[in-house]
Design brief:
The chain has 85 residues and is α+β, with helices and mostly antiparallel strands. The protein has a single domain, classed as Histidine-containing Protein, Chain: A (2-Layer Sandwich). The protein has 2 helices and 3 strands. Helix 2 links the parallel strand 2 and strand 3. Helix 1 runs antiparallel to helix 2. The longest helix is centred in the N-terminal third of the chain and has 17 residues.
């Protein structure tokens, strides 16, 4: 079965866009998509200028709920550290 490389790259870009919309700094994180399984590696932090009282974990969980609804996403695996501050 041939993988569609363009579709995988497009899915990674859509996931990055969704994570950025939710106020997360993923500049030091890598988003990899393979067969519909999205993996996050690196460091995830709170975006600069975000002074909301919501914790980083709850922001990430809310963002991952939206990522799981994207067409083509089968699962999301997090291998990233979360840095509060």
């Amino acid at each position: 079965m041939r993988r569609d490389i363009y579709a995988e790259k497009l899915l990674s870009v859509q996931v990055r866009r969704e994570l950025m919309r939710s106020g997360l700094d993923i500049s030091r994180a890598e988003v990899v998509s393979s067969g519909g399984v999205v993996s996050l590696y690196g460091v995830i932090a709170r975006a600069r200028g975000d002074y909301s009282g919501e914790s980083l974990e709850s922001k990430l969980q809310r963002a991952l709920e939206r990522v799981r609804r994207l067409p083509g996403v089968r699962d999301v695996v997090i291998h990233a550290r979360m840095r509060e501050g």
